[in-house]
Amino acid sequence: MLFRLPFRLRRAPLGLAVVLSLAAFRADDPRDPGRVEHLADFPSKFVKPRHVDVWLPADYPRPGRRYAVLYMHDGQNLFHPASSYGGVAWEVDSTLARLQLRGAVRPDVIVVGVWNTDRRFREYCPARPYQLLSAARRAQLAQEGLLPGPPQSDEYLRFLVQELKPYVDGHYQTDKRRQSTFIGGSSMGGLISLYAAVEYPQVFGGAACLSTHWPLSLQDNPSDFTSACLRYLGQRLPAKGRRPRLYFDFGTATLDARYEPHQLRIDSLLRAKGYTGRDWLTRKYEGAAHSEASWKKRFEVPTRFLLSPAAGK
């Protein structure tokens, strides 16, 4: 069953809510982060049920306005520290409210945060590139406990495209067009965001891939999955006119220190495919770690790239 909580959720434990007085804020006040509606145990015939959070800006809904939608993975990390990994949330709501007030991003944007489950790695691992790996490599990933079974990313994307998006479009004032529909995430969430944009170019107009976890492994830094992704992208990346806009980044500390050589290979392919600055951006962040705190600090960069007022025209 879906439970829609029509009040403002802000930094509260799962299942609890803090009700803030609307009279304390103005719609143009940067302190007003809008509100989050919590959809508990969203059902699916493709994957396990999971919670979904929907962020709505302070002035939602404006009559006659249709809102772009940014779908994000690891949704429990986006808004509430109490549910976030390590107790640090991205504060997506506050960041977007601030950027909208400045006119740096489109005013007509909502965010759908899709919580992960205990099958996170299997759901976020792109199935087609994985199928290009050797049997020995697959066995290694299974031994690490990362992929005890085959990827379920295709099922997860069917859930997003065939079940969740129709619900969101049916219950909120959304702009259903691909140029107003985006997807994003970090680490494995970066991989599945890229995969979603390539598999469903008619649905997603762009993807934000922060600290994309190209090696798959957590123990070493192999290049074979990146090679598989290059083969996959070479065959499946849509032609110009339907290609998604792509944002990538990586840091230089902790797990992110492994990513630069992989990302450079991906960048070379995109360049060869004719990607330019309008449709593609890769950023390197010196000293940035693989953490919610790091992604929180730079979330506004991919947001500006995908959701700039000019991009919505």
TrEMBL record:
Q: Which InterPro entries match?
A: AB_hydrolase_fold, Esterase-like, Mycobacterial_A85_antigen
- Superkingdom field: Bacteria
Does RNA-binding appear among the keywords? no
Say if the entry is tagged with keyword Signal: yes
Signal peptide residues on this chain, from the entry's feature table: 1-26
Q: What are the record keywords, sorted?
A: Signal
- Name of the protein: Esterase
